């Protein structure tokens, strides 16, 4: 008697488990079906939009606002913004959904993920949509050229710049005054940089109380590309070629080593990206290289007067761009693609771009954004924000290749092994070049 | 009679299997099926340059031997295991012995020793990132006070692993203490009384009674510690991203990088198969050989 009862209990558990599984499957089917229906009906279009949050500030609120404002103007299109973590997680979620044949309609992803997304056959070129749009050429040409560089491949435009940044030099004006430097004259060349950093470094016996300069090197070699550009190099080309063993790269490495070991005005080893702004705010570093994305943070937290300047030049000025672009995905209906294009144009309109820049610290991506009243007012009250925009004249693309994740990692490891003294610049970069060539070889056919 | 017996045993077996069925279903669905899939995928080349997976046999496994990073993270992982496992077990045991005694504020001390174990690894990594931060971090603050000077443990490839190991010991020791504490309280007081009457010294009592009777706990804890040494990579995401120059990188984080940064699914599956193999060897060695040397009371 007892045993048969037990038997039924077990069977019931099994049934519950099985029915539980099947139920989730059903609900999934329903949602897939309903989204199919939406696209068939045409009048009602619903778009899924993945976006990352990479900097502080009420990004979620602003994005939701853009989406609802857009629906107000275009009642037949509904945008569903989905917050998907940081850039890495957004990319992972997107990729997983592509493999499950359920891609998002549009997403903001790193500009440098272009080749990766192309190789996954995940995205469509914007040119397809621009053909049917009379204002498209005018619209695209309004973007600041440096920001468009990471959008182009195979003579097509694959993404639209949205939240973009570039590294700048932040310097402590009070520290400048203290050591007799002119606070309105930031370093302009590498020699100035070395000079100034020597004056700005404060020691108490053997202890360094304030470093002259701090260049982060922990996350990826983003800022490093700036030094290569300043030395007249290019680092990468067409997504298929990298130039790691060029003289410009060696010069850039040597500057890092000189600052740390010869002049001892920068900490030795690898410098953390995330704590660098804090070091600056705490007065532990007099000059730092960091993204414009931190402008608002530093402005709000530094209790001293600070300046923002171009990255010092070697042969010329130079800086990479960074940040995220809009992409539209393959495998969605034509109507959805068109709707996504309309939304992108809306979200990057001059006024939106200006407001977005003011709210977040990102650089407004379009020339016309700087003609708007809000932007003019903002720049008047906070002129530091304009430096980054002006520097863009000298800016180049961020390193972006096929297999970008692995190529970046190769460069990062080589760069760090030089900083920690494990390898000499020359051998490290020659090895990195070989490794990168191997990774890029399948794409050179 | 015999048939009846067979029938009985069949019924018992059948019922036993029925009772196991729910967990078996989940085990098959979420453990064995993915393992099979992983091994299957490890035979394919499937990365960004090959959109359609290409069968390559054992090519991916050959690639392992030439992959310097793989050997580096594997060695790192071994050092990480050697650095963390014995120390956490010994410290956990000692802490358990201390808080098992009737001392003042015993439950407070237990709580403080245990609390690192309940904090998520990500939070711990953030705390220790602050401790290790050069210039204004806690460690450097203390070092500056005693006049040793500033160090940046995370910035150099020869110190970063040490810094990680210390952090993990801090996190894990309290967790293991709880198991040892439970084990200690299971040992009968009579044994200690008998030892006392026989005039056994404290160290003899400890090595001849406490340690042997704690062996089941020690086995359990050492398996946990070993698997944790291969599982625990959360801190890398926060603190070093495996750097500088892969000096703090571990096998599981390298798998994550291979799959979700390089999008090399085939090779990622190969690395996962290797990790699986290592774990299986460890588990079988522990269960098959150590089992024999354990006294259950």
From TrEMBL, chain A:
Q: Where is the composition biased (Basic and acidic residues)?
A: 424-445
| Region annotation (Disordered) ranges | 421-445
**One Pfam family, short name please?**
SBP_bac_8
**Cross-referenced Gene3D superfamilies, in alphabetical order?**
Periplasmic binding protein-like II (3.40.190.10)
Mind telling me which PANTHER family this protein's record contains? ABC TRANSPORTER SUBSTRATE-BINDING PROTEIN, ARABINOSE-BINDING PROTEIN-RELATED
- UniProt protein name: sn-glycerol 3-phosphate transport system substrate-binding protein
Give the species. Pseudogracilibacillus auburnensis
TrEMBL record, chain B:
Q: Does the keyword Glycosyltransferase apply?
A: no
- Keyword flag Cell membrane: yes
Record-annotated ABC transmembrane type-1 domain positions? 74-286
List the SUPFAM superfamilies hit by this protein, alphabetically: MetI-like
Location(s), subcellular: Cell membrane
Q: Which UniProt keywords apply?
A: Cell membrane, Membrane, Transmembrane, Transmembrane helix, Transport
* Single GO cellular component term: plasma membrane
User: Its membrane topology, per UniProt?
Assistant: Multi-pass membrane protein
- InterPro entries cross-referenced by the UniProt entry: ABC_transporter_permease (IPR051393), MetI-like (IPR000515), MetI-like_sf (IPR035906)
Primary location group: membrane
Transmembrane intervals: 12-35, 78-100, 112-131, 160-184, 205-226, 267-289
Q: Name one GO biological process term.
A: transmembrane transport
Q: PANTHER family recorded for this chain? A: ABC TRANSPORTER PERMEASE PROTEIN, INNER MEMBRANE ABC TRANSPORTER PERMEASE PROTEIN YCJO
Tell me which family the UniProt entry assigns to this protein.
Belongs to the binding-protein-dependent transport system permease family.
**Protein name (Swiss-Prot/TrEMBL):** Carbohydrate ABC transporter membrane protein 1 (CUT1 family)
Question: Which organism's genome codes for this protein?
Answer: Pseudogracilibacillus auburnensis
């Amino acid at each position: 008697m007892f045993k048969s009862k037990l038997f039924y209990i077990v069977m019931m558990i099994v049934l519950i488990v099985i029915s539980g599984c099947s139920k989730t499957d059903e609900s999934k089917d329903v949602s897939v079906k309903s989204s199919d229906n939406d696209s068939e009906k045409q009048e009602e279009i619903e778009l899924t939009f993945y976006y990352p949050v990479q900097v502080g500030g009420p990004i979620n609120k602003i994005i939701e606002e853009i989406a609802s404002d857009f629906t107000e103007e275009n009642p037949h299109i509904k945008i569903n913004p989905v917050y998907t973590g940081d850039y890495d997680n957004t990319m992972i979620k997107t990729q997983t959904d592509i493999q499950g044949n359920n891609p998002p309609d549009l997403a903001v992803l790193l500009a440098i993920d272009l080749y990766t997304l192309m190789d996954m056959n995940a995205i469509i070129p914007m040119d397809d949509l621009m053909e049917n749009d009379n204002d498209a050429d005018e619209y695209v040409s309004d973007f600041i050229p440096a920001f468009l560089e990471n959008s182009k491949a195979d003579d097509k435009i694959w993404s639209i710049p949205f939240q973009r940044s570039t590294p700048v030099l932040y310097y402590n004006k009070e520290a400048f005054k203290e050591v007799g430097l002119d606070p309105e004259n930031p370093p302009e060349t590498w020699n100035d940089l070395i000079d100034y950093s020597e004056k700005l470094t404060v020691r108490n016996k053997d202890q360094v109380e304030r470093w002259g300069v701090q260049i982060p090197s922990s996350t990826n070699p983003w800022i490093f590309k700036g030094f290569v550009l300043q030395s007249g190099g290019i680092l990468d080309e067409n997504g298929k070629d990298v130039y790691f063993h060029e003289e410009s790269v060696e010069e850039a490495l040597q500057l890092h080593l000189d600052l740390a070991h010869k002049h001892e005005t920068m900490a030795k080893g690898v410098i953390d990206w995330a704590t660098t702004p804090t070091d600056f705010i705490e007065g532990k570093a007099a000059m730092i290289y960091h993204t414009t994305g931190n402008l608002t943070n530093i402005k709000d937290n530094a209790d001293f007067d600070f300046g923002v300047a171009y990255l010092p030049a070697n042969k010329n000025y130079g800086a990479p761009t960074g940040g995220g672009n809009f992409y539209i995905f393959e495998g969605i209906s034509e109507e959805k693609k068109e709707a996504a294009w309309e939304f992108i144009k809306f979200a990057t309109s001059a006024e939106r771009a200006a407001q977005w820049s003011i709210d977040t610290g990102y650089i407004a991506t379009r020339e016309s954004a700087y003609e708007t009243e809000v932007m003019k007012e903002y720049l008047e009250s906070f002129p530091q924000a304009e430096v980054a925009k002006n520097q863009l004249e000298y800016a180049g693309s961020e390193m972006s290749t096929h297999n970008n994740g692995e190529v970046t990692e190769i460069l990062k490891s080589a760069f760090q092994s030089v900083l920690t003294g494990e390898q000499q610049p020359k051998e490290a970069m020659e090895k990195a070049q070989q490794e990168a060539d191997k990774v890029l070889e399948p794409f050179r056919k | 009679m015999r048939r009846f017996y067979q029938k009985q045993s069949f019924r018992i077996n059948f019922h036993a299997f029925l009772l196991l069925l729910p967990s078996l279903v989940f085990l098959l669905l979420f453990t064995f099926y993915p393992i099979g899939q992983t091994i299957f995928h490890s035979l394919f080349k499937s990365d960004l340059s090959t959109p359609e997976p290409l069968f390559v046999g054992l090519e991916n496994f050959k690639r392992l031997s030439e992959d310097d990073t793989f050997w580096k993270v594997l060695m790192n992982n071994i050092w990480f295991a050697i650095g963390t496992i014995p120390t956490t077990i010994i410290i956990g045991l000692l802490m358990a012995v201390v808080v098992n005694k009737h001392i003042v504020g015993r439950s407070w001390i237990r709580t403080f020793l245990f609390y690192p174990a309940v904090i998520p690894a990500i939070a711990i990594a953030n705390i220790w990132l602050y401790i290790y931060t050069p210039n204004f971090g806690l460690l450097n603050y203390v070092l500056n006070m005693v006049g040793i000077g500033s160090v940046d443990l995370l910035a150099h490839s020869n110190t970063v692993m040490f810094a990680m190991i210390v952090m993990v010991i801090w996190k894990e020791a309290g967790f293991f203490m709880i198991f040892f504490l439970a084990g200690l309280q299971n040992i009968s007081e009579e044994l200690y009384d008998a030892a006392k009457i026989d005039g056994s010294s404290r160290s003899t009592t400890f090595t001849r009674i406490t340690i042997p009777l704690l062996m089941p706990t020690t086995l359990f804890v050492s398996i946990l510690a070993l698997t944790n040494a291969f599982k625990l990579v959360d801190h890398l995401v926060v603190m070093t991203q495996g750097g500088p120059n892969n000096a703090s990188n571990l096998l599981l984080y390298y798998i994550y990088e291979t799959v979700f940064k390089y999008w090399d699914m085939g090779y990622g599956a190969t690395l996962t198969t290797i990790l699986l193999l290592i774990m299986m060897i460890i588990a079988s060695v522990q269960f098959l050989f150590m089992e024999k040397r354990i006294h259950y009371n």
